[in-house]
Amino acid sequence: MWRAIKLIFWLVVLAAIALLAYAYIGPVFFPGDFEPPLREMRQPVTLGQD
Asked: Average pLDDT of each block of 10 consecutive residues along the chain (50 residues)?
C-alpha cells in the first residue's frame, strides 16, 4: 500500500514539474498556444430587471 502512495506522490510531483515547464518554456516552442485572440469579440449582456 505504501508503494502505491509513493508512486502517486511522485506522479503528482512530475505532473507539477511538467506544468511549470510548459508554462515557462511553452511560449518558446508553442507560440500559437500562448497568443491572445487577434480580433475583438463583443457580446450583448442583458442585466436582470427587478
From this structure: 96 97 88 84 85
